Amino acid sequence: MKLRTILPLTVLYVLASAASAQTVSNDGYARDMSADAVKNPFGLCWRTGQWTETKAVPGCDGQAPRVRMEFVPVAAPVVPQVAEPAVVVAPRPQPAPIAEAPIAPVPAMVPVAVRRQSITLGADASFDTGKADLKGEGQAKLDELASKLRGVEFDSIRVTGHTDNVGGDAANQKLSLRRANAVKQYLAGRGIDPAKIKTTGMGKTKPIADNKSAQGRARNRRVQIEINGTRTL
């Protein structure tokens, strides 16, 4: 009889506890035996299927009191401006003035008179007819000329042979050149520089008289010597 009495009492106690748990007004969260909301390890309350935003409880859904954070702009630190030392550029040394050398006056151009002296050897007195060998009279005149030329400055000597118009042109030209060369050779033997002596044979092309007379032909047979220089003999 006692067992029957105890069993109904136990059932009634459990029913009474269940009834008291259902009396909680906010059923949006799971509750423990003390009717406190059950929280997960992150500190948030476990929600039930009946949870709505209107059943949110402060402290269960991360609804912590909001802290208003204002960002106050912080002025950048003022860095004192350090004045850079002024760069002083030393003045560049000026080059010393170059003294101009005095310009020597240009000597005035003094015209130099070129003197020319001509000596003529008569062919009849100096050579045999048709020959280029100097005779005694011609040698004497050349000795006198060579003595005057020694120690005298001159530039050149031109020796030109001439003939009359008797005979052919080629023969007369060759004879005139042979006589001019004979004069050059004789002067060179008397100490005159042969490099300064130039010879030419003109034949009968440069007569100085009429070949119609014997006197004119005699004048045309000649050897002309020209000395070019700056001093007279």
Mean pLDDT, all residues:
76
Could you spell the SSE succession in H and E letters?
A: HEHHEHEHE
Please report the first level of CATH classification, the CATH class of one domain. Answer: Alpha Beta
The proportion of residues in beta strands is 5-15%
Structural class: alpha+beta
What is the fourth-level CATH superfamily of one domain? OmpA-like domain
CATH fold-level topology of one domain: 60s Ribosomal Protein L30, Chain: A
Report the end-to-end length measured between terminal Cα atoms.
Answer: 195 Å
Primary descriptors:
4-stranded mixed β-sheet, 233 residues, alpha+beta, 4 strands, 60s Ribosomal Protein L30, Chain: A, 5 helices
Can you walk me through this structure?
- This protein has a domain at 115-229: OmpA-like domain (60s Ribosomal Protein L30, Chain: A), CATH 3.30.1330.
- The protein contains five helices and four strands.
- Helix content is 28%, strand content 13%.
- The protein is rod-shaped, with a radius of gyration of 75 Å.
- It has helices spanning 2-21, 123-126, 136-149, 169-189, 214-220, and strands at 115-122, 156-162, 197-203, 222-229.
- It has 233 residues and is an alpha+beta fold.
- Strand 2 (156-162), helix 4 and strand 3 (197-203) form a beta-alpha-beta unit.
- A four-stranded mixed sheet has the order 1-4-2-3.
Give a summary of the structure in a few sentences.
This protein is an alpha+beta fold. The chain has helices spanning 2-21, 123-126, 136-149, 169-189, 214-220; strands at residues 115-122, 156-162, 197-203, 222-229.
